[in-house]
Amino acid sequence: MEKLFTKIANWVAHITGLPLTFAVCCLIVVVWAVTGPFFGFSDTWQLVINTGTTVITFLMVFLIQNTQNRDGAAIQAKLDELILVGKGHNHFIGIEHLTESEVEEIRAKCERAAKRHDEHIAAMAAKKAVAQKRGPKKHAA
Fold it and tell me: DSSP string of 68-102?
């Protein structure tokens, strides 16, 4: 059941993201609007578009959420693998399961560490530039 749902969700997500699908939806709305005078702008005429758009929106919310959940999980798995094989800290693996405030605290620590690193690199570059400007020291024989 899960594989079938995923297959259908992927197909629907692909189809609904096409420009042609958007154009067809716009055409449906235009046809609906043009038919208004023929139906006297009746309550039933209005109910047709309201019901149709509500049902489609309701279903698309779940489809989009499913797609985003799978995409997010796949990205996290890829990032975790990069952390494992790289020089990253393994304690970052699984942080997507923390609360928002816990993740924010980790992000702030990372930003502070990056700023310290940038300041260190800038200081080293400045020292190197000063040393190059002075030129090689000459030794007396």
Answer: HHHHHHHHHHHHHHHHHHSSS-GGGTTGGGS-HHH
With a CB cutoff of 8 Å and minimum separation 6, the contacts of 52 are none
Segment (H or E) for 18: none
113-130 pLDDT per residue, tens = 889 989 999 999 989 888
Radius of gyration of the chain (CA): 29
d(CA 25, CA 115): 49
Q: Cα(28)–Cα(21) distance, rounded to whole angstroms?
A: 11
Q: Tokens 């899960």, residue? A: 2
